[in-house]
Amino acid sequence: MRLPRLGVQGQLLVMLAILLSAVALLVALLMQRQAQMHSEVTEFSRTAMQQMIQERVRNRAQSRIVQLSEALTNPVYYFDLENIGDLANSAKREPDVEYVLVYDLEGRVLHDGSGEISTYGQLMQDPLAAKAVAAKDSIIQLTPRVLDVAAPIRVGDQQLGGVRIGYSLASARDTEARSIAELDRKVGEVASRNRLPIYILVGLMMLLAVASALAVQRRLVGPILRLSRYAQEIEAGHYDIDVQGSRRTDEVGELERAFARMSSSVRAHDSEIREIAFTDALTRLPNRRDFRERLDQRLQTQGEDDALALLFIDLDDFKRVNDTLGHETGDRVLVEVSSRIRKLVAQNDLRNAELSRFGGDEFVILVESREAGVRGVSSTAAKLAQSLVTELAKPIQIDESEHVFLGASIGITLFPSDAASAVTLIKNGDIAMYQAKTAGKHCYRFYHPSMEQVVERRVRMEKELRTAWERDELTMYYQPVFRMSDRQIVGAEALLRWQHPEYGVVAPSVFIAVAEETGLIEQLGPHVIRKACIDAMRWRAVAPKYTDLFVSVNLSVRQLRDAWLPEQVGEILKSTGMSPEGLHLELTETVVLDDAIDSRGLMRRLRDAGVKLWLDDFGTGFSGLSHLRRLPVDGVKIDRTFVSDILHDADDRALTRAIIGMAQSLGIVVIAEGIEEQGQYELLRETGCDLGQGYLLGKPMDQQSFLKLLR
């Protein structure tokens, strides 16, 4: 039997009945919850009070036993029973103290605080005695009736015996019981007072629900049903529907009239909206949404022997174009790149190829090989990817004198061997593209399931690195720097280390690279400089003969892009009390010569603040010795690759002598790093090198080890 259709009026009545039932149920649940909360509050308070009372007794007992053990040292040492008795009796008279026992190393009682010492010489036999006698430090033992605290009595490293105090917990239990009873009574009173307002509020809600339902039925339900029929017609594409006029002057009447105007407006703009929604405005390529819809359709209609390849393209170093030449130039570059990709796709005569700009500097190509199977589409995708890498590496002309050099990293994933859905296919392409970036950029990589583990670990490492400093997992190590002439310590280089609770020691080359890529280095950098300055101040305080010790800290590329770096360094120096000349900042040679960074202006501002600047890894970049004349640096560090072969390679010896001679003629300090053999040290010292560091002189060590070295 077919049930009659329930109209809006019937639905309204049903909704009202449901609403009233829900309110009644809500009241019942509310009352039940109130009773439950009463029980939970009482139980929570009892537990909290027990913990508080026990903690208070523990703290009191801990403090008193340490005080008494120290006071008993001389009397026990000289076996002064009278003085021992006075101290034990004084402690025994304190509130809640049930007993006091002073005992020797064998656990025999020397005094119990009484006048007659009835237990003198007796061996303590209670279950806690053995632990008390064997304790090397103060211990606390809790039983249902007594809290027993014991502490050894020592003279220097010699243990003479010990002392125990037993605190009765009876008064604490009484206090707890009275407090819980009073709390239970108060909570019950509050619950009783709150019931009446709840009942009144529920009644008002029911009346309001009934009144609202009647008003909605009269003023809104009828007009809405009529407008619903209009909307169904418009949804079906009948934009010219004849919407009847309304005499109402309120919003509902205006809405009915607006429906008529809307149908003609929607019809006029429908095609334009679809164009905007599915096309990238800059390159006129299909956008992400359009590509996703077409990809879903393609995957649903693919045959069993059909295979597809998705190429995920990301331009290398495109952000540098926007940052240095402006976003307008960046847009022109993107248009040129899209044009080149179009031409390559057309030249390769690909079957049913689809190209899309996915967003930013990302492009996606879906290709289908003319040969059946995964092997055929894989070969086609690899050929296209190599053509794209070669073509996009060619310079892009901006104007008559300006060219932009980019490149592309491409990830390739195959359907159906790598993924069965559009979402997974795109995700795998993105993962493969990231691996191409990691492999050095300007290349392509096919997706492999093992890549996901690498990406997941990197994402997890990035997440955990964000809070590693707050969790004290990041620590500072210091490698000492020595004066070559007399092998005297003059400073140290600050090195950041990560002790991960799961991975163990994470190599700096790994987590520093993650910090650089994600921008976390901008947060870690100031922490490192501040901690290094604080530790350096500590060196000077504990070792007066080393009052001029410096600390050197490496700066990253991202830190040097921060125009506020000099002010930030100045604030750190001021807050830590570190003298500016005691802080040496190390900049790599390639960074200093990067035109995208205003390194010279930044370096002068840092030097104006009094900070010393060192040029790190000198000789490994693209500069020559002539750059030393133009760069405002105070020192250069000869890279370890030259020092390691200085005894065997004549070219390295000649270059090292040239660096030292040129730098010293300009008044620049020369530091050699990576000194691991005595012969290297002797040769560098004879050549005139000023400072040196390496495993021969001193390995990286933590703060405590470095302080020990200074002492």
TrEMBL record:
GO biological process: signal transduction
Source domain of life: Bacteria
Domain HAMP, chain residue ranges per copy: 218-271
Gene Ontology terms: cellular component: plasma membrane
Keyword Nucleotide-binding included in the entry's annotation: no
Transmembrane segments: 12-31, 196-216
Domain GGDEF: 306-449
Record's subcellular location: Cell membrane
Topology term for the membrane: Multi-pass membrane protein
InterPro entries per the UniProt record, alphabetical: Biofilm_reg_signaling (IPR052155), EAL_dom (IPR001633), EAL_sf (IPR035919), GGDEF_dom (IPR000160), HAMP_dom (IPR003660), Nucleotide_cyclase (IPR029787), Rev_trsase/Diguanyl_cyclase (IPR043128), sCache_3 (IPR033463)
Pfam families assigned: EAL, GGDEF, HAMP, sCache_3_2
Matching NCBIfam families: GGDEF
Protein name as annotated: Diguanylate cyclase/phosphodiesterase
Organism expressing this protein natively: Solilutibacter tolerans
Lineage of origin: Bacteria, Pseudomonadati, Pseudomonadota, Gammaproteobacteria, Lysobacterales
